[in-house]
TrEMBL record:
It comes from Thiothrix lacustris. Residues 1-22 form the signal peptide. The keyword Signal applies. This is DUF3324 domain-containing protein. It comes from the Bacteria. Keywords: Signal.
Length: 274
């Protein structure tokens, strides 16, 4: 299954950006989601704290997430690279933070929706990347010596999704394709299906498979991991069926959009081989 760092549920979470003896913690969600009208403005904040014993430096910048023609996603440097980008609506309070050991700082941002006739979902990423104090771009870097040297820096960055749902007219539309059953490299049996969002609004579907025996008796409900789908995006959702005995079954495949409760479903014939 595909997993994206920016596609985590908007739950309270904590992660760290480690650089040497500095450890910067970001508290809050990795997904900031807003529902607004054209012309509206909303404020958000990134809460940072250095829990290490050395000064820490973090740079903050923006990137787009572009949906390719095949439904896959990719990060793209810069802003405004596609017509669903909201990156140019966002103003950052600062693009760089330096924290003493134990210090905390709130980094504000504002998102202002244009007054245009907009509807549906628009998105971009706020990227947080630690800056090594040995890097030439670091404001904490010591004065370099005249001696030649070779230094390798490992870069780790994290993305905070900023998702704006504009107006109340747009809707998601979920479609299924290519259902299949196969075993993975560990021998676990999975049911997989391509799920596409052909609507204009972001969806976070709950995908499930209700399985019935040939006589109509219910075997059980099996669920996939929940993650988001941008409008225009396609992803594979997988459901563990390793507990099912070999045989032929009837099944109801369903995807419930947990934004509005709409359910999309499809009847399928399911064959489990030994």
């Amino acid at each position: 299954m595909k997993h994206h760092a920016f596609k985590l549920a908007a739950l309270a979470c904590l992660f760290s950006l480690h650089s040497a003896q500095a450890a910067v913690m970001l508290s809050g969600g990795l997904s900031h989601e807003y529902t607004l009208n054209p012309g509206s403005t909303v404020s958000g904040v990134l809460e940072l704290k250095n829990t290490g014993n050395e000064p820490a430096e973090v740079k903050i910048y923006q990137e787009d997430v572009k949906i390719n023609a095949d439904g896959s996603t990719e990060y793209t440097p810069g802003t405004g690279s596609h017509n669903r980008s909201n990156a140019n609506w966002i103003s950052l309070g600062t693009d760089r933070v330096i924290l003493d050991p134990g210090a905390a700082q709130s980094v504000p941002y504002t998102l202002q929706v244009p007054t245009d006739n907009l509807q549906g979902s628009y998105w971009s990423m706020l990227m947080l990347e630690p800056v090594s104090n040995k890097s030439r771009e670091s404001q904490l870097a010591q004065t370099p010596s005249d001696q030649p040297s070779l230094t390798i820096h490992q870069k780790v960055r994290y993305a905070v999704q900023v998702l704006a749902n504009v107006g109340n007219k747009g809707a998601s539309n979920l479609t299924f394709a290519a259902p299949s059953v196969a075993r993975d490299a560990q021998g676990i049996r999975w049911f997989s299906v391509d799920l596409s969002n052909t609507g204009t609004r972001h969806s976070r579907p709950n995908v499930s498979l209700d399985v019935f025996a040939a006589d109509g008796n219910s075997i059980g409900r099996f669920k996939a991991e929940t993650h988001g789908l941008y409008n225009g995006e396609r992803e594979v959702f997988s459901i563990n069926l390793d507990s099912l005995q070999p045989g032929n079954y009837k099944a109801l495949l369903a995807a419930e959009d947990n934004n509005n409760g709409q359910v999309f479903g499809s009847d399928i014939n399911l064959t489990i081989k030994p």
